Amino acid sequence: GILKNLAEEPNDSRKMYSVVKNIKRIKPQKALQIQTESGLITNDEHEQADNIANFFKQLFYKDAEQYPDIEPTKMLQPFTQKEVTEAAAHMKNGTSPGVDDIRVELVKYAPEEVHQEIANIYNHIAETGTYPLELTHGLLAPLQKPGKKRGPPENLRPITLLSILQKVLSVILMKRLRSRIERKIPINQADTSQDNQ
User: Fold this and answer.
1) Sign of torsion, CA 86 88 93 95?
2) pLDDT per position as a tens digit, 104-127
3) The model's pTM
4) Which residues touch 99 (CB under 8 Å, ≥6 apart)?
5) Could you give the CA distance from residue 166 to residue 10 in angstroms, rounded to a whole number?
């Protein structure tokens, strides 16, 4: 973006000023410094990845409930192309892709045939219990918490990048759940006022 503008408008001093200003604004990222279990700081990326993964694995799965296995079954209300299209339309452009390396825009602006094929995948998963690995994996991107000491893994903020299949399915399921909850819970039980806060 920045260099393209510069190449297209080399004689426009305002454009040049804007591009130089934007270049100066970009700050290089500091390399992560991660404290190992022995208390030493490491800059080795493989050792850092192992320490970060172990820390968050213990944190996330410490008290995790084991869910019972659910038998695959055909959906009573199959996923539709319309649901996929609506879910994709509400997604924000410019987000980082997950393990499938597919960006939101590729699905969002795809033809209806692609959305139908995604709906078919979801219906097949429900009926057979077989699913692509990308549906259950995410990329963990640790970011240093501002103002916190560099080194301890607990001072990192975990950002999980999900695949596009996970994102679309999550939006569809949330919409389905919301409509069911709204039908089951009367409006007088939903506290919309701030009096009780």
Assistant:
1) positive
2) 999 999 999 999 999 999 999 999
3) 0.67
4) 133, 134, 137, 138, 139, 161, 163
5) 44
